[in-house]
């Protein structure tokens, strides 16, 4: 074979080898780019962006959902307001039995170092603020061991609460009510969290489609105005060296009880203010749908709402 024919064969062979190599490599590259884009997006029926135009190529700005799993409770943490979105618990008569020597006086409030410093609340934020460090998952629910109780004193489990008449009285009575439910039900699920609710011009708060206002020991509930209305969002923020921790206008608890395959539930929204003990807990009961609309949260999505009986029709909702 002449040198000219040999060179031509090598060139032709290299050409076809290059085509084959390109054919096998390009799909791999495209798939990698598509997978990178897909992990950042949810399909809402819109067309996908062209390959190579991934907006989140250098990171997703958030918001980050910090799911903090402790021994007795789990928290979904709100980095912006530096309080929880919610704290969830599963109570039974057995896990509420207090361990020997366990005492809340042995627990200290501590910053949650599992969170980045710029996104967590600090001990100095509450000092001199006039607000209590209010537990979302109560210390009284975590008495099995001292370590378990200590976890409830992490500041990620706290939100600013009015002390006299609320955190130290009515709210504490409500927490005890939840524990007492374990005497009548095999399982009690409790979700607790803060709310920042807008207000009407007359001072009523708007919860989804419902207007609510505490007058003495009665809560006035009405449909929110159907006409276009201007609402205002007013809440305080506390902090050392700057605004850091949002002060909720309200707090909620959503309860689910289980016994013999039957379920009851109740949703409650309480203002962050002193409440007279004589006020019936049922005054604060609200439609779950209104709470979900106001909070952006969904509860018990794996249960049919038709299977949920009214808790306050089953037990007396008083504290």
UniProtKB/TrEMBL annotation:
Domain DNA/RNA non-specific endonuclease/pyrophosphatase/phosphodiesterase intervals: 69-306
UniProt feature coiled coil, ranges: none
Gene Ontology biological process terms in this record: apoptotic DNA fragmentation
Record-listed Mg(2+) binding positions: 167
Cofactor(s) demanded: Mg(2+)
Gene Ontology molecular function: any one: nucleic acid binding
Entry annotated with the keyword Acetylation: no
Enzyme class of the recorded protein, top EC level: hydrolase
Membrane-spanning segments: 7-26
Name of the protein described by the UniProt record: Endonuclease
Species assigned in the record: Rhizopus stolonifer
Gene of this entry: NUC1_1
């Amino acid at each position: 074979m002449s040198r000219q024919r040999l060179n031509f064969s090598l060139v032709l062979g290299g050409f076809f080898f290059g085509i084959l190599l390109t054919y096998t490599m390009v799909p791999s590259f495209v798939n990698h780019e598509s997978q990178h884009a897909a992990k950042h997006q949810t399909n809402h029926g819109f067309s996908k962006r062209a390959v190579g135009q991934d907006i989140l190529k250098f990171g997703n700005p958030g918001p980050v959902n910090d799911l903090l799993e402790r021994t007795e409770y789990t928290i979904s943490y709100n980095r912006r307001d530096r309080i929880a979105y919610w704290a969830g618990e599963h109570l039974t008569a057995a896990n509420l039995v207090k361990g020997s020597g366990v005492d809340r006086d042995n627990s200290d409030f501590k910053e949650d170092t599992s969170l980045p410093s710029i996104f967590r609340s600090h001990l100095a934020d509450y000092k001199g603020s006039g607000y209590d460090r209010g537990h979302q998952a109560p210390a009284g629910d975590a008495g099995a061991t001292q370590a378990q109780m200590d976890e409830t004193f992490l500041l990620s489990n706290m939100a600013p609460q009015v002390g006299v008449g609320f955190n130290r009285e009515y709210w504490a009575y409500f927490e005890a009510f939840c524990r007492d439910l374990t005497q009548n039900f095999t399982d009690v699920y409790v979700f607790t969290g803060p709310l920042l609710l807008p207000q009407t011009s007359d001072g009523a708060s708007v919860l989804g489609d419902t207007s609510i206002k505490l007058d003495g020991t009665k809560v006035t509930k009405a449909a929110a105005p159907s006409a276009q209305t201007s609402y205002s969002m007013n809440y305080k923020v506390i902090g050392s060296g700057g605004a850091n921790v949002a002060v909720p206008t309200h707090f909620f608890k959503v309860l689910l009880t289980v016994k013999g395959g039957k379920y009851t539930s109740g949703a409650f929204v309480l203002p962050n203010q002193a409440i007279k003990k004589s006020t019936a807990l049922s005054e604060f009961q609200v439609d779950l749908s209104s709470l979900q609309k106001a909070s952006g949260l969904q509860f018990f999505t794996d249960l049919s709402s038709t299977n949920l009986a009214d808790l306050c029709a089953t037990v007396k909702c008083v504290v």
